[in-house]
What we know:
With 407 residues, the chain is mainly beta. It has one domain: TolB, C-terminal domain (Neuraminidase, 6 Propeller). It is 5% helix and 35% strand.
Amino acid sequence: xxxxVLAATLLLACGGSAPEQPPTPAADLTSPPPxxxxxxxxxxxxxxxxxxxxPVDLVDVPGHDLFLIAVQDGVVYAVPRxxxxxxxxxxxxxxxxxxxxxxxxxxxxxxxxxxxxxxGYVYAYYSHQPGPDERSTRLVRFxxxxxxxxxxxxxxxxxxxxxxxxxxxxxxxxxxxxxxDGTLYLGLGDGGGDGDxxxxxxxxxxxxxxxxxxxxxxxxxxxxYRIPPDNPFVDGEEGLPEIWVYGMRNPWRISFDPxxxxxxxxxxxxxxxxEIDVIVPGSNYGWSVMEGALCFSPPEGCDRTGxxxxxxxxxxxxxxxxxxxxxxxxxxxxxxRGWYVFSDYCTGRIWAIHAATAAAREFVEPVLLxxxxxxxxxxxxxxxxxxLYLLSGDEDSPDRIxxxxxx
Length: 407
């Protein structure tokens, strides 16, 4: 029942100006054009793994031969890379500090520090209740202990990097990603309400409705992060200095292409359109003037000046809530290399679009890689070898985590 309600709420979940179609970094144009459509299938990634409720993130831990699996309630499990998988071990439990009043609240994302092998830091983003009738989302850092079978996340070591008040329970965004230069990116939703009633999407004076970029290296309680000097609003005159882009509605998943360094986002729509964006700093992605490539407010004749259109969007005939994915750079499926792979919460369909073509703002037509489930896809994850996984909240299936494999 919870998964059905979550589907409905995701459906609803969903400064300086930038040029109408911003230039794309040249690095992304080095990939050759596609020679033929890719093909793929799925299989259970961890045979024998108990059915974990609402898995939202999967993290490969190099050097420990472990995968970490985070679930929405606030528990993180570990399973050995090579199995067996039938006894996942709890390495972190923060259910008492994680707010789950609404179905779009909870534990959202987990990320390893780029220098994890040296410092052992893990970052998390989750919902919190700082006081009665209050709600917020927290970006925090944890220390870790142990090695391999003794690996654990030390809950007492929590360092709060950033806490953002949330006016309502939906539209929290929820993805963490470290960029190629070691800075940390976080997508935040518009704060909820039907149609962005507070106007957060077009307000660069709030962190809601944005993707932010901060430097957490050397973080302390007194100085939890620094503003990178090349952030587009670093002087604070036209927007908050943390902001990388704004005009987002509910960027549930963001990811970097490890080959080109481009940042991709899946932004959950309102009632009509779901969108995929290539993120260019300083850009305004249009919400709530636009929903996808269509006018939203007003419904016709909106002013698109300075707004950046998605590289792809789709309507309700194809799904209800986009689940942003990753550009595939693995070895298992050669035909899929260089394609951005994403899914949809309601349908479980898996699509791919050619990343270089889309980033060059040329027309792309997604290739349908898989249809027919699993349902209630919550996340697309990538391991250290570039292989991709689907995390499902389908309570009718004994398997919740799948690997994308050759057909």
